[in-house]
Protein backbone atom coordinates (compact mmCIF):
# COMPACT_ATOMS: atom_id res chain seq x y z
CA UNK A 1 0.00 0.00 0.00
CA UNK A 2 1.31 3.40 -0.95
CA UNK A 3 2.41 5.75 1.80
CA UNK A 4 0.17 8.61 0.77
CA UNK A 5 -3.15 6.94 1.33
CA UNK A 6 -4.96 4.94 3.96
CA UNK A 7 -7.18 2.05 2.91
CA UNK A 8 -10.11 1.47 5.20
CA UNK A 9 -11.62 -1.94 4.59
CA UNK A 10 -14.33 -2.49 7.14
CA UNK A 11 -15.13 -6.08 6.48
CA UNK A 12 -18.29 -7.74 5.27
CA UNK A 13 -20.41 -5.63 3.00
CA UNK A 14 -24.16 -5.13 3.18
CA UNK A 15 -26.37 -6.17 0.33
CA UNK A 16 -27.52 -2.70 -0.62
CA UNK A 17 -24.21 -1.04 -0.02
CA UNK A 18 -21.59 -2.75 -2.12
CA UNK A 19 -21.29 -4.80 -5.29
CA UNK A 20 -19.12 -7.82 -5.81
CA UNK A 21 -17.64 -7.42 -9.22
CA UNK A 22 -17.23 -9.26 -12.48
CA UNK A 23 -17.54 -8.76 -16.20
CA UNK A 24 -19.85 -6.02 -17.34
CA UNK A 25 -22.23 -8.63 -18.70
CA UNK A 26 -22.54 -10.43 -15.34
CA UNK A 27 -25.86 -10.35 -13.52
CA UNK A 28 -25.80 -9.28 -9.88
CA UNK A 29 -27.56 -11.27 -7.21
CA UNK A 30 -29.50 -9.70 -4.37
CA UNK A 31 -26.32 -9.81 -2.29
CA UNK A 32 -24.53 -7.56 -4.80
CA UNK A 33 -22.40 -10.42 -6.14
CA UNK A 34 -21.62 -10.83 -9.83
CA UNK A 35 -22.29 -14.30 -11.18
CA UNK A 36 -19.56 -14.12 -13.83
CA UNK A 37 -16.54 -14.28 -11.54
CA UNK A 38 -13.13 -12.55 -11.79
CA UNK A 39 -12.01 -10.80 -14.96
CA UNK A 40 -8.91 -12.38 -16.48
CA UNK A 41 -8.52 -10.35 -19.68
CA UNK A 42 -8.51 -6.67 -20.58
CA UNK A 43 -10.28 -4.21 -18.32
CA UNK A 44 -11.88 -0.91 -19.33
CA UNK A 45 -12.87 1.67 -16.72
CA UNK A 46 -14.94 4.77 -17.35
CA UNK A 47 -13.90 7.72 -15.18
CA UNK A 48 -16.70 10.29 -15.26
CA UNK A 49 -15.65 13.61 -13.70
CA UNK A 50 -17.42 16.83 -12.90
CA UNK A 51 -15.41 20.01 -13.63
CA UNK A 52 -12.80 18.05 -15.54
CA UNK A 53 -10.99 21.22 -16.60
CA UNK A 54 -9.97 22.10 -13.01
CA UNK A 55 -6.38 21.23 -12.19
CA UNK A 56 -7.33 18.86 -9.39
CA UNK A 57 -9.46 16.77 -11.74
CA UNK A 58 -6.84 16.96 -14.49
CA UNK A 59 -4.38 15.49 -11.98
CA UNK A 60 -6.96 12.91 -10.98
CA UNK A 61 -7.34 11.74 -14.58
CA UNK A 62 -3.56 11.57 -14.95
CA UNK A 63 -3.30 9.50 -11.77
CA UNK A 64 -5.98 7.13 -13.04
CA UNK A 65 -4.13 6.60 -16.32
CA UNK A 66 -0.82 6.07 -14.55
CA UNK A 67 -2.35 3.43 -12.30
CA UNK A 68 -3.87 1.74 -15.34
CA UNK A 69 -0.44 1.49 -16.95
CA UNK A 70 1.07 0.09 -13.75
CA UNK A 71 -1.67 -2.53 -13.47
CA UNK A 72 -1.55 -3.60 -17.11
CA UNK A 73 0.13 -6.87 -18.05
CA UNK A 74 0.42 -8.96 -21.22
CA UNK A 75 -3.02 -10.14 -22.26
CA UNK A 76 -4.68 -8.16 -19.48
CA UNK A 77 -4.35 -4.45 -20.13
CA UNK A 78 -6.18 -1.76 -18.16
CA UNK A 79 -7.65 1.17 -20.06
CA UNK A 80 -9.27 4.30 -18.64
CA UNK A 81 -11.79 6.42 -20.54
CA UNK A 82 -12.06 9.89 -18.96
CA UNK A 83 -15.19 11.98 -19.57
CA UNK A 84 -15.57 15.61 -18.46
CA UNK A 85 -19.13 16.13 -17.20
CA UNK A 86 -18.65 19.80 -16.45
CA UNK A 87 -21.38 20.63 -13.96
CA UNK A 88 -24.11 18.91 -15.93
CA UNK A 89 -26.01 16.30 -13.88
CA UNK A 90 -27.99 15.21 -16.94
CA UNK A 91 -24.76 14.50 -18.80
CA UNK A 92 -23.60 12.39 -15.87
CA UNK A 93 -26.71 10.24 -16.27
CA UNK A 94 -26.36 9.89 -20.05
CA UNK A 95 -22.62 9.16 -19.83
CA UNK A 96 -23.31 6.44 -17.27
CA UNK A 97 -25.81 4.96 -19.71
CA UNK A 98 -23.20 5.24 -22.46
CA UNK A 99 -20.54 3.51 -20.35
CA UNK A 100 -22.95 0.65 -19.69
CA UNK A 101 -23.76 0.42 -23.41
CA UNK A 102 -20.05 0.25 -24.18
CA UNK A 103 -19.78 -2.68 -21.75
CA UNK A 104 -17.05 -1.17 -19.59
CA UNK A 105 -15.92 -3.31 -16.69
CA UNK A 106 -16.04 -0.63 -14.01
CA UNK A 107 -17.09 2.98 -13.42
CA UNK A 108 -15.65 5.71 -11.21
CA UNK A 109 -17.80 8.83 -11.02
CA UNK A 110 -17.52 12.32 -9.57
CA UNK A 111 -21.12 13.45 -9.71
CA UNK A 112 -22.04 17.08 -10.45
CA UNK A 113 -25.06 16.61 -8.19
CA UNK A 114 -25.33 14.00 -5.45
CA UNK A 115 -29.08 13.74 -6.02
CA UNK A 116 -28.48 11.60 -9.12
CA UNK A 117 -26.68 8.97 -7.02
CA UNK A 118 -29.53 6.44 -6.91
CA UNK A 119 -30.07 6.72 -10.66
CA UNK A 120 -26.47 6.11 -11.72
CA UNK A 121 -25.97 3.41 -9.08
CA UNK A 122 -29.09 1.56 -10.18
CA UNK A 123 -27.99 1.78 -13.82
CA UNK A 124 -24.61 0.26 -13.00
CA UNK A 125 -26.16 -2.36 -10.71
CA UNK A 126 -28.62 -3.48 -13.36
CA UNK A 127 -25.73 -4.10 -15.75
CA UNK A 128 -23.58 -5.86 -13.14
CA UNK A 129 -20.91 -3.16 -13.38
CA UNK A 130 -19.07 -2.16 -10.17
CA UNK A 131 -19.11 1.57 -9.46
CA UNK A 132 -17.17 3.73 -7.02
CA UNK A 133 -17.94 7.29 -6.02
CA UNK A 134 -14.87 9.49 -6.38
CA UNK A 135 -14.54 12.66 -4.22
CA UNK A 136 -18.26 13.16 -3.57
CA UNK A 137 -20.13 10.34 -1.84
CA UNK A 138 -23.38 9.07 -3.32
CA UNK A 139 -26.09 6.67 -2.16
CA UNK A 140 -28.15 3.97 -3.78
CA UNK A 141 -31.93 3.89 -3.88
CA UNK A 142 -32.14 2.53 -0.32
CA UNK A 143 -30.05 5.40 1.07
CA UNK A 144 -26.93 3.28 1.59
CA UNK A 145 -23.59 4.78 0.61
CA UNK A 146 -21.67 3.03 -2.13
CA UNK A 147 -17.88 2.44 -2.18
CA UNK A 148 -16.02 5.73 -1.94
CA UNK A 149 -12.54 6.90 -2.93
CA UNK A 150 -11.40 10.35 -1.88
CA UNK A 151 -10.85 12.39 1.23
CA UNK A 152 -12.36 12.66 4.68
CA UNK A 153 -14.19 15.98 4.37
CA UNK A 154 -14.45 16.74 8.06
CA UNK A 155 -10.79 15.92 8.65
CA UNK A 156 -9.78 18.18 5.76
CA UNK A 157 -11.79 21.06 7.16
CA UNK A 158 -10.41 20.44 10.62
CA UNK A 159 -6.86 20.92 9.37
CA UNK A 160 -7.80 24.11 7.54
CA UNK A 161 -9.59 25.54 10.58
CA UNK A 162 -6.73 24.66 12.90
CA UNK A 163 -4.25 26.35 10.57
CA UNK A 164 -6.41 29.47 10.25
CA UNK A 165 -6.67 29.80 14.02
CA UNK A 166 -2.91 29.43 14.32
CA UNK A 167 -2.32 32.12 11.71
CA UNK A 168 -4.67 34.56 13.45
CA UNK A 169 -3.20 34.03 16.90
CA UNK A 170 -0.97 36.90 17.93
CA UNK A 171 -2.27 39.37 15.37
CA UNK A 172 -4.24 41.24 18.00
CA UNK A 173 -7.30 41.63 15.81
CA UNK A 174 -10.46 42.74 17.58
CA UNK A 175 -13.14 40.02 17.29
CA UNK A 176 -15.73 42.75 16.64
CA UNK A 177 -13.76 43.89 13.59
CA UNK A 178 -12.93 40.41 12.29
CA UNK A 179 -15.04 38.50 9.79
CA UNK A 180 -14.60 34.75 9.31
CA UNK A 181 -15.93 33.98 5.86
CA UNK A 182 -16.73 30.43 4.73
CA UNK A 183 -17.41 30.13 1.00
CA UNK A 184 -18.80 26.88 -0.39
CA UNK A 185 -21.49 25.12 -2.41
CA UNK A 186 -24.02 24.66 0.32
CA UNK A 187 -25.98 21.75 -1.18
CA UNK A 188 -22.89 19.56 -1.52
CA UNK A 189 -22.42 17.29 1.50
CA UNK A 190 -18.64 17.05 1.16
CA UNK A 191 -18.44 20.85 1.30
CA UNK A 192 -20.72 20.95 4.32
CA UNK A 193 -18.44 18.42 6.05
CA UNK A 194 -15.34 20.47 5.26
CA UNK A 195 -16.83 23.74 6.46
CA UNK A 196 -18.14 22.11 9.63
CA UNK A 197 -14.60 20.96 10.40
CA UNK A 198 -13.24 24.42 9.61
CA UNK A 199 -15.70 26.13 11.94
CA UNK A 200 -15.27 23.76 14.84
CA UNK A 201 -11.48 23.63 14.76
CA UNK A 202 -11.09 27.36 14.15
CA UNK A 203 -13.13 28.06 17.28
CA UNK A 204 -11.41 25.30 19.26
CA UNK A 205 -8.06 26.79 18.27
CA UNK A 206 -8.97 30.15 19.76
CA UNK A 207 -10.04 31.84 16.54
CA UNK A 208 -12.65 34.57 16.92
CA UNK A 209 -14.72 36.85 14.74
CA UNK A 210 -18.12 37.11 13.08
CA UNK A 211 -18.87 33.89 11.18
CA UNK A 212 -20.28 34.52 7.70
CA UNK A 213 -21.33 31.82 5.24
CA UNK A 214 -21.36 32.51 1.51
CA UNK A 215 -23.08 30.20 -0.94
CA UNK A 216 -21.18 29.69 -4.20
CA UNK A 217 -20.90 27.31 -7.14
CA UNK A 218 -17.36 26.37 -6.01
CA UNK A 219 -15.77 28.43 -8.79
CA UNK A 220 -13.44 31.43 -8.51
CA UNK A 221 -15.85 33.74 -10.34
CA UNK A 222 -18.82 32.50 -8.38
CA UNK A 223 -17.11 33.05 -5.04
CA UNK A 224 -15.85 36.49 -6.06
CA UNK A 225 -19.29 37.60 -7.21
CA UNK A 226 -21.10 36.42 -4.09
CA UNK A 227 -18.46 37.62 -1.63
CA UNK A 228 -18.35 41.12 -3.08
CA UNK A 229 -21.78 42.00 -1.75
CA UNK A 230 -21.02 40.46 1.63
CA UNK A 231 -17.82 42.48 1.99
CA UNK A 232 -19.59 45.69 1.01
CA UNK A 233 -22.41 44.89 3.41
CA UNK A 234 -20.05 44.61 6.38
CA UNK A 235 -18.18 47.94 6.47
CA UNK A 236 -17.32 47.55 10.17
CA UNK A 237 -15.17 44.49 9.49
CA UNK A 238 -11.51 45.45 9.03
CA UNK A 239 -9.91 42.01 9.12
CA UNK A 240 -10.91 38.88 7.23
CA UNK A 241 -10.28 35.18 7.76
CA UNK A 242 -11.18 33.22 4.63
CA UNK A 243 -11.84 29.49 4.31
CA UNK A 244 -14.08 27.37 2.12
CA UNK A 245 -14.66 24.13 0.27
CA UNK A 246 -11.75 24.50 -2.16
CA UNK A 247 -8.99 26.78 -3.42
CA UNK A 248 -11.35 28.32 -5.95
CA UNK A 249 -13.62 29.66 -3.23
CA UNK A 250 -10.80 31.19 -1.21
CA UNK A 251 -9.18 32.66 -4.31
CA UNK A 252 -12.46 34.25 -5.41
CA UNK A 253 -13.03 35.80 -1.99
CA UNK A 254 -9.46 37.14 -1.90
CA UNK A 255 -10.02 38.79 -5.27
CA UNK A 256 -13.19 40.39 -3.96
CA UNK A 257 -11.28 41.67 -0.92
CA UNK A 258 -8.56 43.09 -3.16
CA UNK A 259 -11.22 44.86 -5.22
CA UNK A 260 -12.60 46.29 -1.97
CA UNK A 261 -9.10 47.64 -1.17
CA UNK A 262 -8.57 45.40 1.85
CA UNK A 263 -4.83 45.14 2.49
CA UNK A 264 -3.19 41.71 2.46
CA UNK A 265 -1.97 42.29 6.03
CA UNK A 266 -5.61 42.27 7.10
CA UNK A 267 -6.36 38.89 5.52
CA UNK A 268 -5.71 35.31 6.59
CA UNK A 269 -6.65 32.97 3.75
CA UNK A 270 -6.27 29.20 4.07
CA UNK A 271 -7.15 27.24 0.96
CA UNK A 272 -8.15 23.66 0.35
CA UNK A 273 -6.37 22.07 -2.56
CA UNK A 274 -3.21 24.13 -2.81
CA UNK A 275 -3.11 24.22 -6.62
CA UNK A 276 -4.25 27.87 -6.76
CA UNK A 277 -2.86 28.99 -3.41
CA UNK A 278 0.69 28.14 -4.47
CA UNK A 279 0.63 30.85 -7.13
CA UNK A 280 0.63 33.40 -4.32
CA UNK A 281 3.91 31.98 -3.05
CA UNK A 282 5.87 32.14 -6.28
CA UNK A 283 8.77 34.61 -6.53
CA UNK A 284 7.59 38.07 -7.48
CA UNK A 285 3.97 37.50 -6.50
CA UNK A 286 2.34 40.34 -4.59
CA UNK A 287 0.99 39.41 -1.12
CA UNK A 288 -2.75 38.71 -1.23
CA UNK A 289 -3.44 37.09 2.14
CA UNK A 290 -3.22 33.50 0.87
CA UNK A 291 -1.03 32.20 3.71
CA UNK A 292 -1.51 28.42 3.59
CA UNK A 293 -3.55 25.62 2.09
CA UNK A 294 -4.38 21.99 2.60
CA UNK A 295 -2.62 20.08 -0.16
CA UNK A 296 -4.73 17.38 -1.78
CA UNK A 297 -3.31 15.37 -4.64
CA UNK A 298 -5.75 14.40 -7.37
CA UNK A 299 -3.25 11.85 -8.68
CA UNK A 300 -3.73 9.79 -5.53
CA UNK A 301 -7.51 9.68 -5.73
CA UNK A 302 -7.58 8.84 -9.43
CA UNK A 303 -5.00 6.12 -8.96
CA UNK A 304 -6.73 4.71 -5.90
CA UNK A 305 -10.09 4.54 -7.67
CA UNK A 306 -8.60 2.54 -10.55
CA UNK A 307 -6.68 0.24 -8.18
CA UNK A 308 -9.78 -0.45 -6.11
CA UNK A 309 -11.80 -1.36 -9.19
CA UNK A 310 -9.10 -3.43 -10.89
CA UNK A 311 -8.15 -5.35 -7.75
CA UNK A 312 -11.79 -6.14 -7.13
CA UNK A 313 -12.46 -7.12 -10.74
CA UNK A 314 -9.44 -9.39 -10.97
CA UNK A 315 -9.95 -10.91 -7.56
CA UNK A 316 -13.70 -11.26 -7.71
CA UNK A 317 -13.82 -9.63 -4.29
CA UNK A 318 -15.88 -6.80 -2.79
CA UNK A 319 -14.82 -3.20 -3.27
CA UNK A 320 -13.46 -1.57 -0.10
CA UNK A 321 -16.13 0.70 1.41
CA UNK A 322 -13.74 3.62 1.79
CA UNK A 323 -10.31 4.49 0.44
CA UNK A 324 -9.06 7.71 2.07
CA UNK A 325 -6.13 9.74 0.69
CA UNK A 326 -3.67 11.65 2.84
CA UNK A 327 -3.58 15.46 3.09
CA UNK A 328 -1.13 18.01 4.49
CA UNK A 329 -0.94 21.74 5.18
CA UNK A 330 1.57 23.61 3.00
CA UNK A 331 2.71 27.20 2.70
CA UNK A 332 5.37 29.22 0.91
CA UNK A 333 8.13 27.55 2.91
CA UNK A 334 7.01 23.93 2.55
CA UNK A 335 5.24 23.66 -0.80
CA UNK A 336 8.53 23.02 -2.61
CA UNK A 337 8.76 19.63 -0.93
CA UNK A 338 5.61 18.36 -2.63
CA UNK A 339 4.64 17.49 -6.20
CA UNK A 340 2.00 20.22 -6.22
CA UNK A 341 1.44 21.82 -9.63
CA UNK A 342 0.26 25.44 -9.63
CA UNK A 343 -2.50 26.47 -12.02
Automatic annotation (TrEMBL):
Subcellular locations according to the entry: Cell envelope
Alphabetized SUPFAM superfamilies for the sequence: Periplasmic binding protein-like I (SSF53822)
Q: Keywords, A to Z?
A: Signal
PROSITE patterns tied to this protein: PROKAR_LIPOPROTEIN
Q: Which domain of life is it from?
A: Bacteria
Q: Where is the Periplasmic binding protein domain?
A: 45-315
Q: Which InterPro entries match?
A: AraF (IPR026266), Bact_Solute-Bind_Prot2 (IPR050555), Peripla_BP_I (IPR028082), SBP_2_dom (IPR025997)
Is Signal found in the keyword set? yes
Q: What is its main location?
A: other
Keyword Signal included in the entry's annotation: yes
- Which positions carry the signal peptide feature in this UniProt record? 1-26
Q: Where does the sequence pass through the membrane?
A: none
Q: Which family does it belong to?
A: Belongs to the bacterial solute-binding protein 2 family.
Protein name (database record): Substrate-binding domain-containing protein
Amino acid sequence: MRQNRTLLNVGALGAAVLMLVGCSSGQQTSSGASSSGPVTGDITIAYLQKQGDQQYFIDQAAGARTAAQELSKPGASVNVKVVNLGQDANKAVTETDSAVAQKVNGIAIVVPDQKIGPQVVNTANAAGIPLVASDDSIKDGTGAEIPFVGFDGYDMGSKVGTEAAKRVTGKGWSPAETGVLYAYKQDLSVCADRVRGEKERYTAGGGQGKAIEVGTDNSVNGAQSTASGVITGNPDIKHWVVMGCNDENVSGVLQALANAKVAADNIVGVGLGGYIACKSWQPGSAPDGYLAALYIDGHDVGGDAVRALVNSLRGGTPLPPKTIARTQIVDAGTVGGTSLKCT
